[in-house]
TrEMBL record:
Residues 257-284 form a coiled coil. It catalyses: a (3S)-3-hydroxyacyl-CoA + NAD(+) = a 3-oxoacyl-CoA + NADH + H(+). GO terms for molecular function: (3S)-3-hydroxyacyl-CoA dehydrogenase (NAD+) activity; NAD+ binding. Residues 506-637 form the Enoyl-CoA hydratase/isomerase domain. Keywords: Coiled coil, NAD, Oxidoreductase. GO terms for biological process: fatty acid metabolic process. PANTHER family: 3-HYDROXYACYL-COA DEHYDROGENASE FAMILY PROTEIN, 3-HYDROXYACYL-COA DEHYDROGENASE-RELATED. Residues 206-306 form the 3-hydroxyacyl-CoA dehydrogenase C-terminal domain. This is 3-hydroxyacyl-CoA dehydrogenase. Residues 13-202 form the 3-hydroxyacyl-CoA dehydrogenase NAD binding domain. Signal peptide: none annotated.
Length: 817
């Protein structure tokens, strides 16, 4: 591959050619990064050259409108749609002339792609990078139709759908591709789009779809051989293996059965290019019939499953297809003894080992898992170096592209490579040559090495040696750092980890990071002015390696205490939680909270009190206590009151006076709390007031820890001075409280909220307004905390609140009672 001497350049403007589902969502995600995007598509057939521009660009315009209301949401904030300029291929190709990157994303047809790229060439700037988005067409075949100079700037970029949420980006170069151009796009997509970049070889379906399609096809084959149902296979191929809870067939409905068929047929069409013991993947006859019937999954209203209204609790009722008879029947959740036994095992790796080595003669689950996983291991081991340079790319692709917790080589390690291989030999099963090479050199595909940045070595079957797992600068995790540095202090719920450079992390690691006594105690003891850690470190970061930052307070602990009527214990627990959030706020060292995933209730209160926040872009943040019949009791109401006053004061008073502006800000925050509003992105969390304008947002989850650490260091070294507890907060007072309570009464009288909803909302208004006092009366932060605690304790004593808590613990959903 040629390499130029040009420095890594910026991507400032992008064009996407093709406004279908994939192209439009790629455009939306680039707009999420704040870049202007040109989105073009064909002129509708039969539309004349004299038709108005909105008619000739109808397809692109319609796609843009659809994006604004799409589910799941394509934009972090709908306002980003303004960055997309729609147009058509006939009139608007000149718009791409100032684009740094042009992405072709039209139909999966070689001739269609080649014809469009031929029209595009005259409009490209001399150094523009051109890529094709394809799920499996040969990149070389597309490149062969381009002029020599353009081939150097051309390669494949395979986004996964939906591009906002699926982290994988497979980059597929040709022999002619300039390495600097690959580096440029890789850097942009990593840093700005949050992508996991995996380099793939130009083989059919690349990496993730190659392995994923084999796994899916094998699951369907085993279902037919073993006489299992669609529901049984979905349970077996879900969370028990660390795979998405959708399983095989629910995922198929979401992706589209026609899409799965297209990917499978890529094998057949390119069989001569595949070094594969199963070069031809044949669709099961019943799936062919489904496609003929246009039962294509969610987009057609039915596929392997179909919805049949809602039950009395508002949940979707699903029917499941009987693949033998083509009848739909009520869906149930199958039970397997092996899975029931494995539920108590938290570690996915340990669970896989138990499930794979269970006795297949005693359990249908074990009989299914043995061929499913061992054939996956053999198939994947045989693909190196055909589809990728190393096992690392394969594991990364499956984790980022299919949301597997462990890649296939990591799963093989979890099962025990030698023990599994010996059982395979005893059963007369084939063993991959690469596995034989591994067992001559070691016992596992990966080995730990805390002395290197990634913390791991991988076995390279090409050289039969172990090599460091590569990792980009700025990508790390607490798990890697702990192996290298150990832990400063810990308890069952949290740990303090030395990140180096004078920064310590407080890692949350309870179940779902629910905030119980152990986490509250460790944070308070670590951040109080007299602690050893405050002396030893310049700054702190609160974060974790888990899927979610925190689901909030430990509701089970709270409910048990309430049921025992230990009211003094509840009061002490709330005081301790408030003391923790105040310790965060007034710590002599800056505390940066780096939330991600779900950051709910108490997790949001922790964030509100930090010196700064460094959230991941995909952030589901909210003060959700109203959903269980409570209000925020750890300083959440206090902080939202302060933000309301700040916002009101920053707006120029009109003729009605400043109090009106403060009311508008407080009303918005009141509604956010009373309705338990949760953001669907960090951008939306900012609009809800949970984040400050100065808070930075991290796009790539793997970079969150590093960027939070750098943010904390920057604050510390700029001469950080901790805030002083306020005693001069001008309380909104009883006039605004009365207005908010009137709004609650109106909603209740209109039948929009229940009696208990109204009671919770009135307590929230009481806490936010500072109680029944004269407007602008100066109050202290402690005064507002005392009001929160009063409201929280009162609501804990309500039977309906206790019913809500119990229901949420049982179902994971809120109860409207």
């Amino acid at each position: 591959m040629p390499q130029s001497n040009t420095a890594l350049r910026q991507i400032r403007k992008v064009a996407v050619l093709g406004a279908g589902t994939m192209g439009s969502r790629i455009a939306a995600h680039i707009a999420n990064a704040g870049l202007p995007v040109i989105l073009l598509d064909i002129v509708p057939p039969g539309t004349g050259g004299d038709a108005p521009s909105h008619e000739r660009s109808k397809f692109a315009l319609a796609s843009l409108e659809a994006l604004k209301g799409s589910k799941p949401a394509a934009f972090y904030a709908v306002d980003s749609a303004r960055l997309i300029t729609p147009g058509n291929f006939e009139d608007d190709l000149a718009l791409i002339a100032d684009c740094d990157w042009v992405i072709e994303a039209v139909a999966e047809d070689l001739d269609i792609k080649a014809a469009l790229l031929n029209k595009v060439q005259p409009h490209l700037r001399p150094n523009a990078i051109l890529t094709t988005n394809t799920s499996g067409l040969p990149i070389d075949a597309i490149a062969a139709r381009l002029p020599d100079d353009l081939r150097q700037r051309f390669f494949g970029t395979h986004f996964f759908n939906p591009p906002r949420y699926m982290r994988l980006l497979e980059i597929i170069p040709t022999d002619d591709t300039n390495l600097d151009d690959i580096a440029c796009i890789s850097h942009f997509c990593d840093q700005r789009l949050g992508k996991t970049i995996v380099r793939s070889h130009d083989t059919p379906n690349f990496i993730a779809n190659r392995i994923g399609t084999f796994s899916l096809g094998n699951a369907i084959r085993l279902m037919q051989v073993q006489g299992l149902s669609i529901e049984e296979v979905d349970v077996l191929t879900g969370t028990a293996l660390g795979w998405p809870r959708t399983g095989t067939f629910r995922l198929g409905d979401m992706v589209g059965i026609d899409v799965l068929a297209h990917v499978a047929k890529n094998f057949e069409a390119q069989a001569e290019r595949i070094q594969d013991e199963r070069a031809e993947v044949t669709l099961a006859p019943f799936i062919e019939t489904m496609i003929e019937k246009k039962w294509l999954g969610d987009k057609s209203g039915q596929g392997f499953y179909k919805k049949e209204g809602r039950d009395t609790e508002g949940r979707d009722v699903r029917l499941v297809l009987d693949w033998r008879t083509f009848d739909y029947k009520p869906s149930t959740r199958p039970k397997f003894p092996a899975l029931d036994m494995a539920k108590s095992i938290d570690s996915t790796a340990a669970r896989i080992a138990q499930l794979l080595h269970a006795d297949p003669s005693k359990d249908k689950a074990a009989a299914f898992y043995w061929p499913l996983l061992t054939e996956l291991f053999t198939y994947t081991a045989n693909r190196i170096p055909e589809i990728a340079d190393s096992i690392v790319e394969v594991d990364q692709a499956m984790k980022a592209g299919f949301n597997w917790e462990l890649g296939p080589f990591e799963m093989f390690d979890a099962a025990g490579v030698r023990a599994t291989t010996e059982k395979m030999r005893a059963a007369g099963m084939p063993v991959a040559k690469n596995v034989e090479k591994l067992l001559h050199a070691g016992e596992s595909w990966y080995k730990e090495d805390p002395t290197i940045p990634s913390g791991r070595l991988f076995f390279d079957p090409v050289s039969s040696t172990y090599k460091p797992v590569p990792v980009a600068d700025g990508v790390t995790s607490l798990a890697v750092i702990k192996k290298a540095r150990g832990v400063v202090r810990k308890n069952p719920g949290a740990s303090v980890v030395d990140l180096g450079d004078g920064v310590a992390a407080i890692e949350l690691h309870s179940k779902m990071n629910a905030l119980g006594d152990d986490i509250v105690s460790l944070i308070t003891q670590t951040l109080k002015p007299s602690s050893q850690q405050v002396t030893d470190f310049e700054a702190f970061v609160i974060t974790g390696d888990s899927v979610n930052f925190s689901v909030g307070a430990n509701l089970m602990q709270l409910l048990l205490t309430i049921q025992d009527e230990e009211w003094d214990e509840v009061d002490l627990a709330v005081r301790a939680f408030q003391n923790m959030t105040q310790t965060i706020k007034f710590c002599p060292r800056p505390v940066v909270v780096a939330p991600y995933g779900m950051c709910l209730g108490g997790g949001t209160e922790i964030s509100l009190h930090a010196a700064a926040r460094q959230p991941h872009a995909e952030l589901y943040m909210g003060l959700v206590e109203a959903g269980v019949g409570l209000i925020p009791g750890g300083g959440g109401c206090k902080e939202m009151t302060i933000r309301s006053i700040e916002a009101g004061s920053s707006i120029r008073p009109d003729a009605r006076g400043e109090g009106v502006e403060i009311f508008e800000a407080l009303k918005k925050n009141f509604e956010t709390i009373a309705k338990a509003v949760v953001s669907t992105s960090a951008a939306e969390a900012r609009s809800l007031g949970f984040l400050r304008p100065s808070d930075n947002i991290t796009s790539n989850r793997d970079r969150l820890l590093t960027e939070a650490k750098l943010r904390a260091l920057a604050i510390a070294r700029a001469g950080y001075a901790a805030p002083i507890a306020r005693t001069d907060i001008p309380a909104p007072g009883e006039s605004i409280l009365a207005t908010l309570k009137l709004a609650v009464w109106t909603m209740h009288e209109g039948g929009y909220i229940s009696d208990h909803d109204a009671k919770v909302a009135n307590w929230a208004a009481y806490a936010l307004c500072g109680g029944k006092i004269s407007p602008a009366t100066p109050v202290s932060e402690q005064y507002l905390l005392d009001l929160e605690r009063e409201a929280f304790l009162s609501l804990c004593g309500e039977k309906k609140t206790q019913e809500r808590i119990a229901f949420t613990l049982k179902t994971g959903r809120p109860l409207r009672n």
